[in-house]
Amino acid sequence: MSLLFKHFRIHQIFGANTDVGKTILTTALVRATGPFQDADDEHIRRHCGAPQDKVHTDCLYRFHVPVSPHLAAQIAAGGEADKIVPDDTFLNSISSYVRRSASRVSGPAHMYLETAGGVHSPTLSGVTQLECYRPLFLPTILVGDSRLGGISATISAYESLLLRGYIIDAILLFRDQYYRNSEFLMPYFAERGIEVTAVDAPPPKAVDAAENLASTERYYESLNLLPVVQNLDMRHQQRLAELDSMPRRSIDTLWWPFVQHGLVKSEKDVTVIDSASSDFFSVYNAQNAGRSVSSLEAQFDGSASWWTQALGHAHPALTLAAARASGRYGHVMFPQATHAPALLLAERLLHDGPGKDWASRVFFSDDGSTAMEVALKMALRAFSVREQLEGTERKALGVLGIKGSYHGDTIGAMDACAEEGVFTCEWHNAKGYWFDPPTVSIQEGCAIVTLPPALAAVAAKDDYRMNTTNSMSWVYDLTGRLDSPLAQVYREYISHTLDGLEHSGGPRLAALVLEPLVMGSGGMIFVDPLFQRILVDVVRERDPAPSKLTGDWRGLPVIYDEVFVGLYRLGMQSTIPFLGAAPDISVHAKILTGGLVPLAVTLASDSIFRAFHSTEKAEALLHGHSYTAHPLGCEVANEALKLIEKEVRSEPWATAKARWDLDGTPSVMWSLWDPRFVRALSCLENVTEVMALGTVLSIKVNDVQAGYISQSAQTLLQSIRIHDHDTESFASGGVPQFSVHFRTLGNVAYFMTSLNTAPETIRTAEDKIWKALEIKCLAE
Amino acid sequence: MSLLFKHFRIHQIFGANTDVGKTILTTALVRATGPFQDADDEHIRRHCGAPQDKVHTDCLYRFHVPVSPHLAAQIAAGGEADKIVPDDTFLNSISSYVRRSASRVSGPAHMYLETAGGVHSPTLSGVTQLECYRPLFLPTILVGDSRLGGISATISAYESLLLRGYIIDAILLFRDQYYRNSEFLMPYFAERGIEVTAVDAPPPKAVDAAENLASTERYYESLNLLPVVQNLDMRHQQRLAELDSMPRRSIDTLWWPFVQHGLVKSEKDVTVIDSASSDFFSVYNAQNAGRSVSSLEAQFDGSASWWTQALGHAHPALTLAAARASGRYGHVMFPQATHAPALLLAERLLHDGPGKDWASRVFFSDDGSTAMEVALKMALRAFSVREQLEGTERKALGVLGIKGSYHGDTIGAMDACAEEGVFTCEWHNAKGYWFDPPTVSIQEGCAIVTLPPALAAVAAKDDYRMNTTNSMSWVYDLTGRLDSPLAQVYREYISHTLDGLEHSGGPRLAALVLEPLVMGSGGMIFVDPLFQRILVDVVRERDPAPSKLTGDWRGLPVIYDEVFVGLYRLGMQSTIPFLGAAPDISVHAKILTGGLVPLAVTLASDSIFRAFHSTEKAEALLHGHSYTAHPLGCEVANEALKLIEKEVRSEPWATAKARWDLDGTPSVMWSLWDPRFVRALSCLENVTEVMALGTVLSIKVNDVQAGYISQSAQTLLQSIRIHDHDTESFASGGVPQFSVHFRTLGNVAYFMTSLNTAPETIRTAEDKIWKALEIKCLAE
């Protein structure tokens, strides 16, 4: 919803406090700016010093009791809470007003949007102003406080703005000969790149109205804010020039992850992200520069920003958590040291988090890939210690897994994956054996388990399907399926394969490594959970009694890579309730910090930990990264997990879950996406299959040339990336006009929400997806 | 310098603005708290309602002009700037006062330290109050503003405190029936875990002094702040209990990096870090709980927090940068996208940073280890493309390096290192050849190049030494040494070895991987830079013309791992000026973010980049991490690099450099450590050798059992870890009383400063090291 018009410079005016002279300085700015547009007050209209038809002022909401806006609104509403204008309506009306104004002028024009009170004064609904206005992301002028205490007020207000990412283009305040705040503030803010301008204070109010008008007019005439206005104009131009130049400069200097630069044809192929808030990126569109529409467009972050988002972008509570830890600690060197954020996070993960009831230790690292390296080091060592292997035998160990797995891009994590597709490199040396998995999908409204050839041969059929009302949750009802004929097929096949591997001369298997339920990077492959559960069971059953040497893990150490699937991404805190079996080691990242900064953890059971425990330094887990358990990341994670637990108990989650209880039985399978929409999609002609679980929606489109390099899903859904400006300036209610940013994995398009994405936003996204696919269906 | 006494609860009182009632509410708190101690004002003394001998008030600095303290101080100083009390003196006088007070009482007592004006009101010197008091890290009571605009002022003040990590235990403000700020603030702060208490405002001032006294007394009698005081007492107890329990809880849940848990004997072996600021950790010492000394002790961060610190802990500018980016973006999904912090950082690194004049691309990742994996993937691919290798040939490639190298703990980074010492694991498969390096050290005041046996055999001598005045900088003067006989020895030996390797049947070498100058984790091994330079030269000279297929790199792609040694850690922005040769790929992390959050970059020349450039997606560098180029990290890095460039041009750097110009010739070899101290150390009996470069000081102690698991350096220097409380309460001047936290690598103890560590702090640390070693010398 951010607003930026080339021909129409807008600045928002915040006060460091109430009664600091916002209206007077706004008036002075309008006079210095010359013709056009402004908002708020009679005073401005009277003193703007320009022909009335060249200057417009408007006050969109006016209250007559001089108290904080939230109180004024309460008083005006006479105690009826639903008469108070909600924040999003308030914001949309401002946004629409600005858009309409921008579309009415063709030449250069300006607008000053004066806010009420101080930066954190409550709005009508009670949210504070700088939070409420944040989605508009207007560059800001801060009016400082020239009174005693005003230095403090001005700096604090600046910091509050900065905590919300605001661009602050200028600070204005009255000159006070006694307190001389401006003298202190000028160098203070110069060091921070902001120009402070001090202006003479207005004359005392005269008793006589005419004299008052005249003296006020003389006062305005004496001021010269032209340099300030020129500076604002320059900043506006610089910002546009910067945004314009960013694609070219990025193409020339960045080396993007996973991007073939040879396919980046022009500047248009680069997404310039100017800011983000909640579920929306604010994306620069150079095409709009010559038009009367905003150059910044709202784009729904349809991939949850590479699967990291849980609470939306720029969540103030996460920013404050980051600031708090940074301000208290900076860095803490972690070996044999402790600090509250890390300890509390470890305890939370073990006692109330995904490690509950099985894990006893938390090892910190920086990302999913490093945390998987740690997990592998743990598992291989535990196995080696139990089996009392020698050095060379240890080097030859392999892992058991599933084809299509992805555990990150460092070589160790890669080596735990089969070499297939494009995810390989010179030193990738896949070590182990990987099963072709049976997969789950919804096709024509019906849940289907599709068997790979080897399993199909054993089962003597290609797939299993269920046509009852609750068919979609059937596959996730493991208690109902553990004794099914298919379970027996899986059991026999896995046992038989493992028997064969033991005599094959391949690497000795030392760990079972799974991405439970969904192999994300492998192409959003939904693996039959029954297969994974039986895999765990069979591996453990082959080793009847725990070893005395290493405690209670059996068979192979089992690693769950929950980097993508954990922490409610699929609707549950961990995948353990789906599979009904806990791992010995699990790995978590992405959502862990609510999508703000890198941090990862590897959880381990006590028996795994004991494999490293001795009095020999050389037998310790000699792994670490400089920023291990960095306080900022841990504090943000604590805050994120706290907010997430609140979110998952919220009304929208209850409603969404209820919608998926198709036969009245609650299931672990549910989604924020509407089941009717999912079912309908699965019936479209150009859609092969669909799946939805938790926040994830995956759509596989018809394409003979499937695989990672296919462009078919991109092509089919391209239209939803395009912003529709036509209806925008008249938008009402809560949902802004937006296009949809999404990612594809070959012929699979996937969409992912945050845990707190508004239901209306999801419904709108569903409509857009539906229209794009349905129209394509009709056209073909 | 943080203060925390079990028997003596201290709270600092900050105001959301000036004139909000701090003194009145402090008085009320003192009355409710009962006997003891307080600071500031006549008003408190008069109305505290307790026997005079039970309550003390003091005002340490008093000015008579009611303006901001910095102005009052200026006025009192009569324009003589040096008469204004500097911040550290100011702070030390408060700290000493508090310590003396704490030592005078034995039973439970309390102190309220009332500050002046608002949170950001300037102190005497002009630094704002919350910055100035931050090292004391006292828990805080915020007095809110009950007037119009006071909601905003209170929240902003809270946020400013939070940006400095302050613990805020309570908010107090007057009840105002008209503006009702407290009604808004109570739920607002309840959500943030802080109790807001509203108190009746004092009666209007009576004209008659006696009547005034009486009405004020009645007013105080009517207040009941006992619940607030009880809450403060509870928070104090909770904080102590938390600190007390942290070691045990950490031992029970954390899995520390590089730590053998079997060697962690008791709670005392765990360092509890309560906060940190500039170069000091504030460490909890449970032993002090029953004594009249602070339970928190200042410990000089002598390892620069695992080699990450550049500007000190909790630097406000870095916190604000983190907050700014978090508030503006949160996360940005990076493939084919761009945002200002990442782009500006890339441009800075390429145009004014370590990539200047040779690199054209920046690839972002999360830590040194992942960035090295990226570097290796780049180099191996570039080599494979030029040599047109097939799949199996590509897997068999190796690297050329130096023994003792360390590039991180992910398997790929490990595989680029020789398998030696303890840094190994099950999947470590060292691929390549590593030279035994000649090393550099200072022994008995004289610089020595020590040759390993193979080189000594060629040279027919074991070492080279120089006894002139500038002997210490001699080894780093490569232009003077390139034509020396030793250079010829190196050249022949390297050529001969490489010839041999080509016919050895070992892995084909595809990259030269170096930690220039110092191999840190390998044991602070200072490699003779001449050897590394000639290694680069020989490798390149063996390949006379650049390949048409891959542009202008020659021989092997050369990787500089500058994670530890770069970004001024050794006194220069990069190691290129030392070696006189640029790499094709370089890796940077640690200092990159000023020691706040994980972020790493791999820089590459255009010819390396071109090896991946095509129209085939599968040929791209398919590597990435979810938080690649996270805006918070990039913004912090931009801020850190900006501040660092200022720092390296500062007076302390110029002074330190001049001190090392022993014969008047500026050298690339210089250090923040004093050369006389370094030389003297090298002459001690129990010291084998010493080296200093930039911020690093390395001391190898005599030990027959050297190596990573040796404890000799730990034992020898143990005494400097102990805090000396005796002189503390009478400390004056700028340097607080501190002990020294340091790390060892076997028989090597090393010390590392930030780039901006105060010279006085370094001198004090030198004294402590000197005393510890000298006394041990005498004792032996």
What does the main sheet of chain A amount to? 7 strands, mixed
- Structural class of chain A, by secondary structure, is alpha/beta
| Biggest interface pair, counts | A-B, 173 and 174 residues
The quaternary state of the protein chains shown equals homodimer
Would you report the number of β strands of chain A? 26
Biggest sheet, spatial arrangement of strands of chain A = 10-21-20-19-16-11-12
Residue-averaged pLDDT of chain A = 91
Question: Can you tell me the CATH class of the domain at 316-438 and 482-647 in chain A?
Answer: Alpha Beta
Radius of gyration of chain A: 30 Å
Shape of chain A: elongated
Amino-to-carboxy terminus distance of chain A: 35 Å
Subcellular location (chains A, B): Mitochondrion
Protein name (chains A, B): PLP-dependent transferase
Pfam families (chains A, B): AAA_26, Aminotran_3
InterPro entries (chains A, B): Aminotrans_3, Aminotrans_3_PPA_site, P-loop_NTPase, PyrdxlP-dep_Trfase, PyrdxlP-dep_Trfase_major
Q: What does it look like?
A:
Chains A, B: One of its GO terms (biological process) is biotin biosynthetic process. Chains A, B: This is PLP-dependent transferase. Chains A, B: It is found in: Mitochondrion. Chains A, B: Keywords: Aminotransferase, Transferase. The structure is a homodimer of 780-residue chains. The radius of gyration of chain A is 30 Å and the shape is elongated. Among the domains of chain A are: 8-238, Rossmann fold, CATH 3.40.50.300; 316-438 and 482-647, Type I PLP-dependent aspartate aminotransferase-like (Major domain) (Aspartate Aminotransferase, domain 2, 3-Layer(aba) Sandwich). In chain A, 58% of the residues are buried. In chain A, a hairpin with a 2-residue loop joins strand 25 and strand 26. The model of chain A is unreliable at 36-40 (pLDDT under 50). Chain A contains 27 helices and 26 strands. A seven-stranded mixed sheet of chain A has the order 10-21-20-19-16-11-12, sandwiched between helices. Chain A has a five-stranded parallel sheet with strand order 2-1-3-4-5, with helices on both faces. Chain A has a four-stranded mixed sheet with strand order 6-7-8-24, covered by helices on one side. By secondary structure, chain A is α/β, with parallel strands linked by helices. The interface between A and B is large, with 173 and 174 residues. Strand 6 (271-277) of chain A pairs parallel with strand 9 (337-338) of chain B, so a sheet runs across the interface.
